[in-house]
What does this fold into?
Amino acid sequence: MDGEHKGQRASSPVVERGPAGRKRRFGIRRGFLYIALALGFFFIMRQGVIPAYLSPLPALDLSVPNAWLVDWRIAELKRDRALCTRVLKPPQISASPVNDNPVKDGCGWQNAVRISNAGGASLSVGTVSCEVAAGIAMWLAHEVQPRAVAVLGARVTSVQHLGTYACRNVLGRKFNFASRSQHATANALDVSGFTLANGRQVTVARHWSGSGAEARFLHEIHARACRYFRVAIGPEYNALHKDHFHYDRGLFSRCK
It folds into this structure.
């Protein structure tokens, strides 16, 4: 028995040596490199870092429903005022550029616009980022208007909101990290209600929790907002949003 134990040796992992082993290790490293490059490409496209003239994507067209890679194409507007001017045009939206207000202490804006009409509805917004303006125009034209006609029998003629720019921190977090809200850079819009062509009023505060056609309309259009915005939250997120939908184009994504 002792002799048998002495003759046994503990097994050890087999290490590939020679050309075959080097080839395998090189293949693994190359795979990790490709993954890193793909993630880097995804990040810079999502952040609109690549200039429009170097982008592999066609410029955004607000009139086209179901546009592919719409999030990345909206992101291209972030730093490009010339592209913003070309994309934000009637009849999809009536917008005019606003002078930059350099960000200081986390507040200010860059490449913002003023809106008077979007998606066929009156919408008066003083200062909002080009990205959010494009998202609002497409959401109203391709989601809100069709659902308004289908569910409520009339088009939306005006949109009410609670504001865009506000130099403040994020509200309602369990832990206060003193982080700036997207409102602090005019990169968010809080939508509170709609007026229809027949004079009917639909508001988040009054109709979201109901069981009628107005509630159905609000739930359907809010669910479709995530296609155009990174964050789309409403009454089900927390009590601070009981009377409006918050839409922004920040770094992180959250839809509820």
About this structure: The longest helix spans residues 18-46. The two ends are 68 Å apart (CA to CA). The first strand starts at residue 93 and ends at 98.
